[in-house]
Request: fold
Amino acid sequence: MTDGISESYRALRFAAEAEARGRQSRETVVITVGAATCGRSAGALEVIENIEKALNDNSLTARIDIVGCAGHCYAEPLVVIAVPGQPAIMYSQITPDLAPLLIRNYLAGGDMCLEWALGAAEENDLIPPVTMSPRFAGETRRLLRRCGAIDPLNINEYIAADGYSGLSYALSGAPEAAIENIKRSGLRGLGGGGFPAGEKIELVRAAPEGMKYVICNADEGDPGAFMDRTLIESDPQSVLEGMLIAGYAAGASEGYIYIRNEYPLAAKTIGKAARQAAELGLIGQNILGSGFDFEIKIAQGAGAFVCGEETALIRSLEGKRGTPRPRPPYPAESGLHGKPTLVNNVKTFAYLTWIAANGPGEFASIGTERSKGTAVFALAGKVRSPGLVEVPFGATLREVVFEIGGGIPPVAKPSQAAGEIPVVIKRRFKAVQIGGPSGGCLPEEALDTPVDFDSLRDAGAIMGSGGMVVMDEDNCMVQAARYFLEFTQKESCGKCTFCRIGTKQMLDILNRIIGGAGRMKDLDNLSELAERVGQGSLCNLGRTAPNPVLTTLRYFRYEYEAHILEKRCPALECEKLTAYYISLERCQRACDACVGSCPTEAIYTRSDRLKAIDQEKCIKCHSCIDACPANYDAVQRVSPILALPEIKPDKTGGK
Amino acid sequence: MTVYNGGGLPSGEASLIENYTYEQTQHRQAAIEIAARYSGSSDLISILLDMQEELGWLSREGMLEVARLLGMSETTIFGVATFYNRFRFTPPGKRRVQVCMGTACHVKRGGVILDLWKRRLCICEGETTADREFSLEQVACVGCCALAPVTVINKEVIGGMTTAKVDGIMLQRELEREREEKSGAGIKTEEQDAAENK
Reply:
């Protein structure tokens, strides 16, 4: 039977490789455009349209490949042009307007337009490859290796890139051998909890015979995290393959992918991918002739953060309100429809595929002692090169934020004189928030923390889903804590009293502090409430909800104290504690930039032609600061409000 | 008090249905068609999602019909529907403005953008303007954090929002409205319609 399986796989692989060769052998120019959700919002679909038009206009022929996203969000829309005989070049930020120019200059005119290039996509003697830049060199790509390299909607490209070899290997052995493989690798669930993946599958396997389910948790609700979406949109087959392997190992026959409602493209992509796999006999009855049957269904969520919790997710799949229930019994014993159920995150399934194909030893070769393999982070916020970053466990936060992410971008301000370079103002790092609303804010001192499940927990944050938001000195930490708490408070399902009412009380206290009416006793109350909410809640939403408050209290207590004692916001962000004014010494009579930028018409021109802000109308939106030319820098902020300098009234007294 | 008897119409509601308006009947019909595609109560969320996709919102009449077809109580249906953020119970505007309030957008002053939308449209989040032109929603992360702050209008993602862009979109709408009025007060003649379809 074993021979039969590898035989059927070889046949599939042979056909896929033949198709791939057919594609490559032709001597044509290949233009690759990344068009996942983020690429599309940056205009990738228009880029493709414009490229087609430009090819027509210049009577050129080229093949356009539409691929997923490589996670380099800062470079979207990303275009790769491979001309036969020349190295493939990766171009960043090719907007719809730029695309026709690039085609004309390069393909018709022979000018490579290196000023737009990120680098060469492969090693060569002419152009430095992108792999030499820190953004690429610092990463170890395992889960994301195919993202942005293959067409997600063509299963043959996946198979030709070693796809489904892991499944064929797993099916050739006993399910127990597959479990042993996963246990030996030391893989821990990548949904945030870090439960050993092999043991979880073993628990489901050990449950009494009968109907068993596998659920892929793609309800990626953490604001700031988007790696699950990218993986599904760019390499859906690897997730399906992982589910098949898990299903075989656990003895399950049906799988569900519970996908977040906000991800319509991901749901469409994986639906198509599953149909293609079913056509080749990789999903369905008697897979690869092994006698193993497995069906995969796609289910869409309806927008509830708590449904990322496994018991809530199962209830939602059953068509009920997504409220968590006490564990045990764990889903491994009694899950969907009361049957044993294996629930894992998207990344965990994709990693099962990787382990089956490359072996557990290879997997465990990188990482720390207790966290093996790689972690994927979604880097966002005040960082130069945001996007997905895959690093081995044990890399430090500093490496991720400063080396790979490029550090804090300076603020560029326009200069008054035409043609002059914008003035650049450097910004300082303040904190990095890890793990979404359940995570914590870590300060500069903690930047040398290695990223793994245990070190992050000790520092007060969690691995969570891997969202990583960088904040600079313009961000108020009390505001940050309030933001996350507001999110969890809104998303609390209301089942546990502490979570429902406790988070509301904490939010009220934070709002008071931000509004300038805080008392010192509030800080003690906050800590106490935080502890109680953590203890008195059933699921991880409530248990970890106080984390942002606890970590900001721990690392940024002085900011809270400044808000309470001095009525001052050190980051000049809190509206009620900050005032904007225009310095008369710096303001120029000939300039009107701020007046037009103000959305509430709070800025008026005095009779001496200088500008002033009507404090009553000002909403502190920052537009005037952005608009004021850097060489004047006349709009100033001050906190506390009492420090507002008295502006000399003009003769007419205003208007 | 209405009593349910195995999926039949609750007593006293038959006459209610006869008095339905066009929109109410439309919602009821949609519920019947969509529920027929699914097997039962465990597909409730999918049924409601499909209904919202088709009609834009969930009306009382639509949900009543679903309750009847699935043999579940109205409160269960309403309880499930209100639990999830996705469902809306008021008709959406022609332009659905969704302001992203994800972490990255928050850090990049997304709150100011939401504030300005409220100010310009004179409505709060979750509401629709009186002319049903605009509706405003606050959404959790739409997943394009690198483009923060983000506003989604009718599924079109607009990245790098500024206060000026909000005003720009409002102005664009204003110009369109003027053009419509010029070309015959919004009522299209058949020839115009055909020309546009070409």
